[in-house]
Design goal:
Elements (H helix, E strand, L loop, with lengths): L1 H33 L2 H11 L1 H17 L4 E5 L3 E2 L5 E2 L2 E4 L4 H25 L3 H10 L2 H9 L7 H12 L12 H67 L7
Antiparallel strand pairs: 1-4, 2-3
Helix pairs in contact: 1-2, 1-8, 3-4, 3-7, 4-7, 4-8, 5-6, 5-8, 7-8
C-alpha cells in the first residue's frame, strides 16, 4: 500500500509541476507570436477553451444538482490585478460547507473522469496502469510512446492537454475543503477502527486500485505536458532567436 501511495504522490507532484510549466510556456509562446498582451491572452484562452468550458460547466452542473442557484457563468478571459489570468468563472449563491466543497471539487472530478474515458477508449491507459502495478519501467515507456499511434491521436492529445491544464481547482474553489477533508478523515478513521480487520481488508483493494488508475491518469497528463513544454520551449527559442524578443515573468 505504501509504495503505491508514494508512487501516486510522486506522479501527482510531477503532474502539478509540469502543469505550471505548461501554462507559463503557453503564455510565453502566445506573447512572442502576437506581440500584444491582450491578443496573447485571447489566444491563450482559446487554446485551453475545451478544458475551461468543462471546468466551468462542471461547477454550474454540480451547483444545480445540489440546489444552489447559479448567478452567472463566463468563459471570457480576464487579467487580474495580481497579473494572473482568470480564464472563466461561475458565480453561485453562498451555501454550506459540504455543498461549497463539492461545487469547488467538481472540475477535478469531471476532468479526471474525462481523462479516464479518453485514456481507456482512445489510448491504452490500461497498459499504463498495468505497468504501474507491476512496477515495470520498460512497459510504462512502451505504453506512453504508443500514444501517437492511436486514431486521431493528435486531436485527443490536444484535448487531454486542454482538460488536464484546466481541471485543477482555483484558490477560491478550495476555501471550504479543509473542514470537509478533516471530517472525511475522521469518519474514515472511525470506520476502520470500529470495523477492524474486515473493514481494512475490504477497503485496501479498492484504495489500491483507485490509486493505480489515478497514477496512470496523472502519468498520461504529465507525459503529454512534458512533450508540450519541450515543443513550446523550442518554438519560443526559435522565435526569440529570430526576433530578438523574450518574455520575462515576475
Amino acid at each position: 500500500m505504501l509504495p503505491t501511495l508514494l508512487t501516486f504522490l510522486a506522479t501527482f507532484g510531477a503532474a502539478l509541476a509540469l502543469e505550471r510549466m505548461a501554462h507559463r510556456r503557453l503564455q510565453e509562446v502566445c506573447i512572442l507570436l502576437v506581440r500584444n498582451v491582450d491578443l496573447a491572452t485571447a489566444l491563450y484562452s482559446v487554446v485551453l477553451l475545451p478544458g475551461v468550458a468543462l471546468h466551468e460547466a462542471s461547477h454550474a452542473l454540480m451547483a444545480a444538482l445540489l440546489g444552489v442557484r447559479v448567478r452567472r457563468l463566463s468563459l471570457r478571459p480576464e487579467r487580474q490585478r495580481s497579473g494572473t489570468i482568470r480564464l472563466g468563472y461561475v458565480e453561485v449563491l453562498r451555501s454550506d460547507t459540504l455543498r461549497s466543497s463539492l461545487i469547488g471539487a467538481a472540475p477535478l472530478f469531471a476532468g479526471l473522469a474525462a481523462l479516464l474515458v479518453i485514456g481507456m477508449l482512445v489510448f491504452d491507459l490500461e497498459a499504463v496502469q498495468l505497468a504501474v502495478s507491476e512496477v515495470s519501467l520498460a512497459a510504462l515507456v512502451d505504453a506512453l510512446l504508443a500514444l501517437p499511434r492511436a486514431t486521431d491521436s493528435w486531436l485527443w492529445i490536444y484535448l487531454v492537454f486542454a482538460i488536464a491544464n484546466s481541471m485543477m481547482p482555483s484558490a477560491s474553489d478550495v476555501q471550504a475543503w479543509p473542514v470537509l477533508i478533516a471530517g472525511l478523515a475522521l469518519i474514515g478513521t472511525a470506520t476502520l477502527v470500529l470495523g477492524g480487520a474486515p473493514a481494512l481488508a475490504a477497503f485496501a483493494p479498492l484504495a489500491l486500485g483507485a490509486l493505480r488508475w489515478l497514477t496512470a491518469t496523472f502519468l498520461l497528463t504529465a507525459f503529454i505536458n512534458l512533450l508540450a513544454v519541450l515543443a513550446m520551449g523550442l518554438v519560443a527559442g526559435v522565435v526569440g532567436a529570430l526576433t530578438g524578443r523574450r518574455v520575462e515573468f515576475r
